Amino acid sequence: MSLHHPSSRLLEGRCKLKEFEVILHRLHILHLKDLIRRNSLGLDVEILGLSLLWPICIYCSMKIDADTHYIDYLFLGDYVDRGQHSLESITLLLALKIEYPHNIHLIRGNHEATDINALFGFRAECIERMGEQGGIWAWHRINRLFNWLPLTTLMEKKVICMHGGIGHSINHVEQIENLQRPITMETGAIVLMDLLWSDPTENDSVEGLRPNARGPGLVTFGLVIEFCNNNDLQLIVRAHECVMDGFERFAQGHLITLFSATNYYGTTNNTGAILVLGQDLVVVPKLIHPLPPAFHSPETSPERHIEDTWMQVLLR
């Protein structure tokens, strides 16, 4: 995509969501094809387990406001299905990945899958915004791109990041690096369900694996310290769950759940956070405070309830 094209404003952090909508209408399907093609070429040479060095900023959603020339930015997945601007979000990330290929890093979340984002709105949004033919094409091709996204990132060989967590299928980091892409639910269902869907147990005292209420075949995990010891790791960073303070420590500080979106679904009034990983692997959370909520937050996460229902239906 030419940086002189009007859609180059997608690369400017000053763009607001209302402006995104105008820009996207001017983004021709040919420009989207070029974004997908150029990212496909780049992802083809990235390994499934990325390896990064500090300084790094870790995000669960999108807000870039610093120097992309000397800081790496890592996003932990779920780039679509999170509101009415999925196309703007993924298009911006693809453009950023082309402009800063060595500094912008995307790993896969559980919504970067055809079965999921067909149900949660991304497919419908593509059709609504680009017409039946163009929308279906864009949805299929973007999902094909998702199948090539790395599943984890290893930082300084001591901190591993993934969207969900660990489960039955992965005991050693090398197993992830040896997986063959593209990875779909047909070719790698167990690994994807473990790395993209797992949650930590609610209590540090619970060890091993337990059934996950999200659906059959999914697990909660308590073997964090064991996994870290077996792989010479200090920390696991994951996303996937809304936590009220933006981040939450688990397993004596060896695992952090990170959630960057504030006031999730407009009802939760949660704080968001990013993590900055600096020298000597010092992790510094940066909080993003929400605007006042429109009404009181529910006792349970809307995402958790909806995804519970989806998984129970799909995995029967």
From TrEMBL:
It is an enzyme of class 3 (hydrolase). Belongs to the PPP phosphatase family. It comes from Zingiber officinale. This is Serine/threonine-protein phosphatase. InterPro entries: Calcineurin-like_PHP, Metallo-depent_PP-like, Ser/Thr-sp_prot-phosphatase. Keywords: Hydrolase. Its EC number is 3.1.3.16. Residues 107-112 form the Serine/threonine specific protein phosphatases domain.
